[in-house]
Amino acid sequence: MVDMNTPTALALTISALVAGSSLLVLGCATDVLDARTDGDAASGAGSTSSSSGTGGSSDSSGSSGTGGMDCSEKVPCTPTFLGPIAAGGEHACAVTATGALKCWGSSSQGQLGNGTQSYSTGAVPVEVISAGVVVITAGALHTCAATLGGDVTCWGSNFWGQLGVGSTTKSLVPEGVPGLSGSRALIAGDVHTCAVTDAGGVECWGWNNDGQLGSTAGEKSLVPLAVKSLSSGVVALAAGLDYSCALTAAGGVKCWGGNSLGELGNGTTTASVVPVDVTALTSGVVAIAGGSQHACALTAVSTVECWGSNSWGQLGSSGGPQSPVPFAVAGLTSGVVAIAAGAAHTCALTISGEVLCWGWNAWGQLGNGTTTGSTAPTAVTGLSGKAISIAAGGAFTCAVLAPGGVDCWGYNATGQLGDGTLNNSQAPVHVVGF
Predict the structure, then answer these.
(1) Torsion of Cα atoms, 238 then 94 then 75 then 39, to 10°
(2) Average pLDDT of the residues in 25-38
(3) Positive or negative, the Cα torsion across 347, 350, 356, 359?
(4) What's the pLDDT band for 217 if we cut at 50, 70, 90?
(5) Taking a C-beta distance cutoff of 8 angstroms, is the pair 179, 185 a contact?
(6) What does the alpha-carbon distance between residue 358 and residue 368 come to, in Å, rounded to a whole number?
(7) What structural domains and CATH numbers belong to the chain?
(8) 220, 231, 319, 330: most buried by Cβ count inside 10 Å?
(9) CA pair distance 316, 345, nearest whole angstrom
């Protein structure tokens, strides 16, 4: 377990409890909270997700309201200002200070949740949900959210049943997932979704070609199915193209599903319907993130370890095209409080509010002013303020800032940078509407 007596450890612990995947919460790190202005609470602290490396997860005690700290039994210090952010294939969403949702970018399948299939170059309100959202996660073409009470809603593409509503009909506005309540964490893979139940178990639905639902029920499930060997003790989730991972309360990581490039991290390339332990990560992990075919873990000592595909250097190494076991990202030995994984790039957030990214950079998603890929972490330049949470999408990245606002960078063909244009950007630009 992590020593809760230090600010850094507290931030790391909350990252594990309040978020997972590519969107991880910064939590109560003193150095970042000090970025507030005139004594007011800093605007924005929430999940930074996932999954296809675009989803995220969060404890159901997550953020809402406008300032101050809500200290509870489940989550020692829950931020109550601007909340989680999630990045999908070509869209992104963020929870507002009042617990409502705004999304921007592609809505080809209704993934913005505003009742249309038209893209938006600025943040627009999600219909139906006006308050109470504490968890947001985004897949390739769908989005899901959970409320403070643990109710889950999903919208967007539903060809494989990834909305969990019992049909394959897409939805342009949020729909409740029947039979699922008390959810404490939520993650969207490319075309599947998983949730942590109130009991700490895991249920998944959607595409199941490689067993990413933790079930042999067939190629898809239109409703949530229990991952039988994970009935309790799970605090966060990560997911990618065809695999899923869970972080346990003991700090261990277990993964299941597709494994052609070592995504399960167990030293093999054999798929598994049953969750398997990630090699050498059975304890000491505080957060996890899932990219398309790679995954990463943040440890209690602030190191980052990654495994799976390394075709673009997204593991932080030039050591080969893939790794079926985790290894440490060079140069990240202290101060990291959150991680996020995109399609083929990875980012880390430091306690000082700096963002470092590595991997694929064809569209400027590393945010370093170039389109040259990097196998080593490089600093994002030009942020409008200190970052307090991050999210990595298909080929773009976003950060929530203190004292407020959201910056994004990278690919922008459908407005996923949210700056009012369709221009790609190798440096951060501000999202209109925050």
Answers:
(1) 140
(2) 27
(3) negative
(4) confident
(5) no
(6) 10
(7) 7-430 (2.130.10.30)
(8) 220
(9) 9
- Which residues of 69-201 form beta strands (DSSP E)? 69-70, 78-79, 85-87, 91-95, 101-105, 120-125, 133-138, 142-147, 152-156, 171-176, 185-188, 192-196
In angstroms, the CA 363 to CA 33 distance is: 32
Q: Strand (E) positions, 271-321?
A: 272-277, 285-290, 294-299, 304-309
Q: Tokens representing 61? A: 């005690």
Going by C-alpha positions, the residue among 300, 387, 290 that lies closest to residue 345 is: 290
Select from 372, 356, 394, 351 the least CA-distant residue to 45.
351
221 φ, ψ to 5°? -135, 130
Which amino acid type is present at position 352?
S
Q: How far apart are CA 192 and CA 213, in angstroms?
A: 8
**Does residue 104 have a pLDDT over 70?**
yes
pLDDT at 82: 60
pLDDT for 30: 24
Structure tokens at 393: 């999408």
Per-residue pLDDT tens over the stretch 389-403: 999 999 999 999 997
With 80 as the cut, is the pLDDT of residue 63 above it? no
Q: Closest Cα partner for 20 from 100, 137, 111? A: 137
pLDDT at 23 over 70: no
For the cut 80, the answer to whether the pLDDT of residue 195 exceeds it is: yes
The confidence score (pLDDT) of residue 424 equals 98
The residues near 6 (Cβ < 8 Å, ≥ 6 apart) are: none
How far apart (Å, rounded) are the C-alpha atoms in residues 298 and 193?
A: 22
Q: How many CA atoms lie within 13 Å of 336's alpha carbon, on the beta-carbon side?
A: 34
Tokens of 325: 């076991």
CA dist., res. 300 & res. 425, Å (int): 34
Residue 75 has pLDDT above 60, yes or no: no
Dist. CA 331–CA 340, nearest whole Å: 17
Share in percent of the chain as helix, strand, coil (round to 5): 5, 40, 55
Tallying the residues shown for the chain, one arrives at 434
